Amino acid sequence: MKNIRNFCIIAHIDHGKSTLADRLLEFTKTVTVTKGQMLDSMDLEKERGITIKSHAIQMEYLHKGEKYILNLIDTPGHVDFSYEVSRSIAACEGALLIVDASQGIQAQTISNLYMAIEHDLEIIPVINKCDMISAMPEEVEDEIVELLGCKRDEIIRASGKTGMGIEEILTAIIERVPAPKGDEEAPLQALIFDSVFNSFRGIIAYFKVKNGVIRTGDKVKFFNTGKEYEADEIGVLCMNMMPRKELRTGDVGYIISGIKSSKEVKVGDTITHIARPCAKGISGFEEVKPMVFAGVYPIEAEEFEDLRASLEKLQLNDASLTFQPESSMALGFGFRCGFLGLLHMEIVQERLEREFDMNVITTVPNVSYHIFDKHGVMTEVHNPAGMPDPTLIERIEEPYIKASVITTTDYIGPIMTLCLGKRGELLKQEYISGNRVEIYYNMPLGEIVIDFYDRLKSISKGYASFDYQPNGFHPSKLIKLDVLLNGEPVDALSTLTHVDNAYDLGKRMCEKLKELIPRQQFDIAIQAAIGAKIISR
Predict the structure, then answer these.
(1) Count of other CB atoms within 10 angstroms of residue 8
(2) Which of these, 195, 200, 271, 183, lies nearest to 230 by C-alpha position?
(3) What pLDDT is stored for residue 40 in this prediction?
(4) Within 10 A of 155 (CB to CB), how many other CB atoms are there?
(5) Got the DSSP string for 254-289?
(6) Which residues touch 490 (CB under 8 Å, ≥6 apart)?
(7) 379-426: per-residue pLDDT in tens?
(8) Residue 433's beta-bridge partner residues?
(9) SS3 of 415, please?
(10) How far apart are CA 131 and CA 157, in angstroms?
């Protein structure tokens, strides 16, 4: 156990962690030829240059004549996948903090860094892309020293492209990251940090053994779901899966036990033996909740069953996608899908088109609301069409988030105007270093869903970075805005919106529809209405 090192990589999107991981694999001779971004398995990941699914890989490295086993657990960098990141971090003892030498520290890096510090990980700061002309390693070093309180000589300068600093990183991992702790004699406790679907073997769960030993053929159960299985095959993850007879405390590996549905394997669950179970699961497990909802409809009505099959197959790969059938007067039969965020929604849409050849229409994304009636009974509504009659509603609560925006001082004014326009309230602002400032806002999630991120990027010329955490439900003055065509309400166009935004939104929708709907030989009234009151025509 003393020669095992488990570590992950923390970085903002596009700070070069997949490229750096390639160099580590090359240097430790885990792979002979790299094709670039070895750990990103989907075409979509390679094209967009983002990591969507986390991966794990084992490397062997000789240091001062001793052989060490290094387990790298790769993590996604986008805010939508922060729960997956938290489970990957819980499976490690150390983390490489990678910062781009030309961009400095961004919001996502900070939020994942705090998560790593909460789990007591040893942080190794690395400045990447030092070979670039626009690199400012001195200034970025100042930021890191201020953030971590570490010494300057602890920061490693590297480049994933040229391979500089790779040997220093490996040495730092071995010398600074502690070996895993645990008791081999204790009952088995293993943390599931990811799962993948294989069309021949079913669901394969990736786990790290915290205590105890697991052997092939053991009867095991998953602690939080209570389901029982037999471990048909266990092993370690190199570039391919390598079966092993047993995995001991501190090891990272996979288990295949013929599981058919991804709903049975929850990320963050604990594996234990049936005969000698552990007293309690590993803490931090939570059900992943979708944050954004949208209707997905096939363009051709007869493709409804194909769409259902496609979504079910996607769900095998991605357990955080939820869907239920719904129908609309305008669009026919389709599904109400729940996503982790906007990026997740975009990826699902693109995968439906590429992998299953499905042409779909998606409705405006919205969030879930809590609606309380006069008797105090709460119903959760994901779709404006499901709203009860306004006379029966006591109050409506909507989800809020605590948003943090990191930007340079030049853009504070426009960003504050944007946040206030989205009903945000300023909590505090802190100067990080030099001319960079972090602003905290309490904002309704529904306001962020549509165009907030794009507008933030364009206002700040791409410099501002954004991150958020859920912050409970708060009462709000929301109303349902209907669009009427020729006096008939069109359910696909109705939205829930705040009273202050209703007139503006109604006017914009009517004007847009006037351009989009083909002309007829007779007058067609396009109206926006709140209840029985027409607000725009």
Answers:
(1) 26
(2) 271
(3) 54
(4) 20
(5) EEEEEE--GGG--TT-EEEESSS--SSPPTT-----
(6) 329, 330, 482, 483, 484
(7) 888 877 778 887 888 888 988 988 888 887 888 899 999 988 888 899
(8) 436
(9) helix
(10) 10
